[in-house]
Amino acid sequence: MPALHEKLIPVFDDVVRRNPGEIEFHQAAREVLESLGPVVAKHPDYIDSQILGRLCEPERQIIFRVPWTDDNGRVQVNRGFRVEFNSALGPFKGGLRFHPSVYLGIVKFLGFEQIFKNSLTGLPIGGGKGGSDFDPKGRSDAEVMRFCQSFMTELYRHIGEYTDVPAGDIGVGGREIGFMFGQYKRITNRYESGVLTGKGLTWGGSQVRTEATGYGTVFFVEQMLAAKGRKLDGMRVVVSGSGNVAIFAAEKVAQLGGTVIAMSDSGGYVVDENGIDLNLVKDIKLNRRARIADYATERVDGARFIDGGSIWDVPCDVALPCATQNELTGADAASLIRNGCVVVAEGANMPCTPEAVRAFEEAGLLFAPGKAANAGGVATSALEMQQNASRDSWNFAYTEERLRIIMKDIHDRCLGTAEEYGAPGNYVAGANIAGFTRVADAMVAFGVV
Ligand code: NDP
Description:
alpha/beta; Glutamate Dehydrogenase, Chain A, domain 3; Rossmann fold; 3 domains; seven-stranded mixed sheet; five-stranded mixed sheet; binds NADPH dihydro-nicotinamide-adenine-dinucleotide phosphate
């Protein structure tokens, strides 16, 4: 593990002591703190005013019971979370995750990452995250609706367009946002569009929000390659996952002339050397909510499904981990490096383990951390809030161009900051430092709050 600056050791020790067992949060906090040595050396006032200590402690953490009735009339009980981490730059902003693995440590890691990501976008949004250990898999639409209504019946009192604005994440897409917005509107008797993002296009949603995280990740990759005088055109790309982020990352890769040869879900991965047929993936995963294994049985010409195993064993030029945290290990990184991969960009949040990130750095690969590469989703959510506030709606081409410019700005900010702090070409250092300093300066201005 790389050493922490001596002034940051007590900060990290406090994170571990105060949040026992929350290993994903420890990992996310350590990763940011490791980058901040040169910053605290230059600005000792950040230590004196406890900016780091305050940043690592959420402003507010909400945990609540979510009771609901399944289709057999049985009462089920889940746990709901919202961690309002930091509002120095704007209302708390970040998605809701519905997955059985969700507990406070996952929500805190995601909320913590969100602070720096949102700051990097340059837009006025603070950081937060939430969710539940509810598993939507195999549940009927009516069950998902009753769960979402119960979840919102508690959450509504904590959120608002100027307070906290949730969106989607794993297990939360357009269907769930619709059920939650409907319940919020009913309880509050207000058509407050700006309280949730990721809404449907006919009721306050923004063009490009569905595509934004995946498209944005690929725009970021385009910039990384351009900085080295290269293009995505003709490259072989592996994308893990087959949900919202993965599907639209794959779509943009294809639009820019790359070939996606493998995708996955939690059951395994498919390889299709002719290029993945995205219409089929969309039909299987988005319409039918079925398994990626079906791709190999439904597509006859040579696609194969590998049950389990690692998708990162498939040789590629570009790797886009777009499924979940810690899905790409040190051994996977070694395999990618051995096979000649040149770029890895995180579409998911923290999908690469610290060992993997270190291996990429040592091998001199271009590596983009999620808080930079996947920031297009939240940035377009902020554009959705902007359209809601002005009761306007923009067309697809204009909104996509805004997203492209935002991703280029984030890219340039990361590279410029890395250079300024003596780590040229290091996107991890650039993203962490640029994200941190904007939030820290606002916190200093506000005094001790
Ligand atoms: P979805 O629920 O739409 O898709 C998640 C995908 O990842 C599915 O293919 C799922 O497979 C797979 N997956 C989930 N858990 C695991 C696991 N434990 N092992 C292997 N595969 C898994 O989620 P999103 O696409 O929205 O989110 C993906 C990632 O991107 C997350 O890390 C999220 O935090 C991040 N992100 C999302 C944003 C957004 O706008 N949606 C914005 C920024 C980041 P299966 O179908 O089998 O469950």
